[in-house]
Input
Amino acid sequence: MSVPVIVGTASAPPTTAGDAVPLVLGPSLGSTTAIWDRAVPYLAPTHPVLRWDLPGHGSSPATAAPFSTGEIAQGVLRAADAAGIDRFAAVGISLGGVVSLELALAAPDRVSSVIMICSLPKIGTPETWLQRASDVRAMGTPWLVTGSAARWFTPAFLEAEPDVASRVLNGLLDLDDESYALCADALREVDLRDRIAGLGMPFTIIAGELDPIIPIEDARAAVSAARDGHLHIVEGASHLAAVERPDVVAGLVLESIGRTP
Output
């Protein structure tokens, strides 16, 4: 196992930020920093923002070396160091949410709050991720586009915003197949449910009401296990709620980081 190189992209610092906590934003599997494009305009005016890419996605280089979600988190910490960010709120979508939780567990002195968006301490089953990795190794990430459309977006959003949905889905065409498969391998192994109770900072899950990947009851159980847990449900949204309802998700992020341990 090895720590992958994670590349971060910083937004221009807001002139009114003062001592506002920076936001370190992680993407979902199969997406890049562009997944945050619709939400960042609501966040960047008041908070420094650093977005990061998964291995073989966007700006982060491909790798053939296996890694864990904890090792992705170590790569993110190095990217935060390179950006001059010390203490921050860890915010992530799906796999990015798992990595955000890993950040809070590995570096609690640096993470002021953790916010998982359409994510859980354990996502799916080992069998599901084993099959996903096998399929991508055999057929490549373009094979994922049709199925991802159904998982990521509601039919109403696909009809109302086809250009936005297409841009996100077409991002799957440019990913490194092996790096994607290795991310699926990492998700197959990770289960952080028994570590939630040890978190000393606020822990929030923002769930999509219609998300077929993240059951609401599992999200509710996760926040109930935390000392300071909070659950918000975005009505009418599926797995990529930050794309479908960026204003709502950004507002909930800002509300969540306003809490103190």
